[in-house]
Design goal:
Strand order of the largest sheet: 3-8-7-6-4-5
Number of domains: 3
Low-confidence stretches: none
CATH superfamily of the largest domain: AICAR transformylase, duplication domain
Helix content: 25-40%
CATH topology of the largest domain: Cytidine Deaminase, domain 2
Shape: globular
Number of strands: 15
Distance between the termini: 28 Å
CATH class of the largest domain: Alpha Beta
Strand content: 15-25%
Largest sheet: 6 strands, mixed
CATH architecture of the largest domain: 3-Layer(aba) Sandwich
Oligomer: single chain
Length: about 400
């Protein structure tokens, strides 16, 4: 099959719409179920590249949760602690496969953003992962294959309309890519730069202690950024992105946005949040919304009389600013990656507040010395790899 006609493009008024191979070859995908749309395919193909590279870089199964052409989360299949299982709503699923653990992490890091996601998996989708996906609000999935039972489970989603795409893992695109804007064709070489340990050797700070597990987290950050709309930064800890700031015009705004998401990830692990007395009839998406309000500045939206009764069996105590600060103070060992250089040291100051100890960025700013001085002040390890990873 050389082309696939789509219902419409980015918006319903944008017709006709299709995906096709300009060289006359067959598409490297097969739609096994549903009718994926234009944006679904953009998410699917970007997400597939991300997880394929994560698997190559780490040797572990990988998953990503895409929304609006940027990842909301990305992770590899490291085991989950009991606390993470609980905040990701998977503590009732028993033992998880590595692939299921990867998706639990990718989906769970920023569940608000992952609502209605498009999933990409590096490996054949197994039953454990399919059962996890089955109960989440998601638009579709791309993977190199599906076990027969997993495929049947996924086909049951969205009243039988769940988009399921199988991609040929051996497919290799042409080295030059093109797109049109306003009728004008743009052409560039594909970004085929390999993200591996070799790009993490230029340590510019006084502290040069860079364990292998941190290098792996740096690779996860960089590969995630490679497929995130720029400007972008990514906070990573223990094999998963915990905060992604995408598409911001100012880098400090990326750092703040992603840092706030990383902070939320940690606050969700606080016993005060873990033990919120939810009503049994409140679903996971509604619980996610309530938690987001409860740990944020608009906590009265969920704690006001007449509001809390809809979600909780009893009114929770306020999670005070002081309690939040105390809980967040324990965060440490976080990796921060940036798709371009940090122009000012304020990014480093903000990163420190979210427990960042390791930074990987291209370098090359006229203020590099100020940025490095700030990292030295906090005892951080900073790698300047000279690689810009803009993605548009």
């Amino acid at each position: 099959m050389n082309e696939l006609e789509l219902k419409y493009g980015c918006n319903p008024n944008q017709k006709p719409s299709r995906i096709f191979m300009a060289d006359g070859s067959d598409l490297p995908i097969e739609v096994l179920n549903g009718k994926p749309g234009y944006i679904n395919f953009l998410d699917a193909f970007n997400g597939w590249q991300l997880v394929k590279e994560l698997k190559e870089a780490t040797g572990l199964p990988a998953a990503t949760s895409f929304k609006h052409v940027s990842p909301a989360g990305a992770a590899v299949g490291r085991p989950l602690s009991d606390t993470l299982k609980k905040i990701y709503w998977v503590d009732d699923l028993g033992e998880l496969t590595p692939l299921a653990s990867a998706y639990a992490r990718a989906r769970g890091a920023d569940r608000m953003s992952s609502f209605g996601d498009f999933i990409a998996l590096s490996d054949e989708c197994d039953v454990c992962t399919a059962n996890m996906i089955k109960r989440e609000v998601s638009d579709g999935i791309i993977a190199p294959g599906y076990t027969p039972e997993a495929l049947e489970i996924l086909k049951g989603k969205k009243k039988g309309n769940y988009a399921i795409i199988k991609i040929d893992p051996s497919y290799k695109p042409e080295p030059v890519e093109r797109k049109q804007v306003y009728g004008i064709t743009f052409e560039q070489g594909r970004n085929e730069i390999a993200i591996n340990d070799d790009v993490l050797t230029n340590i510019v700070t006084d502290n040069k202690d860079l364990p292998q597990e941190v290098k792996d987290d740096m690779k996860i950050a960089l590969i995630t950024l490679k497929y995130t709309q720029s400007n972008s930064v990514c906070y990573v800890k223990d094999g998963q992105a915990i905060g992604i700031g995408a598409g911001q015009q100012s880098r400090i705004h990326c750092t703040r946005l992603a840092g706030s998401k990383a902070d939320n990830w940690l606050m969700r692990q606080c016993p005060k949040v873990l033990n919120l007395p939810f009503r049994e009839d409140v679903g996971r998406p509604e619980r996610d919304n309530a938690i987001d309000n409860y740990i944020g500045e608009d906590y009265m939206d969920v704690l006001a009389d007449g509001a809390w009764e809809k979600v909780f069996t009893k009114k929770p105590e306020i999670f005070t600013k002081e309690e939040k600060a105390e809980w967040l103070s324990q965060m440490d060992g976080v990796v921060l990656g940036s798709d371009a250089f940090f122009p000012f040291s304020d990014n480093i100051d903000r990163a420190k507040k979210s427990g960042v100890k390791y930074i990987v960025q291209p370098g090359g700013s006229i203020r590099d010395s100020l940025v490095i001085d700030a990292a030295n002040q906090y005892g951080m390890v900073m790698v300047c790899n000279g690689i810009r990873l803009f993605h548009h």
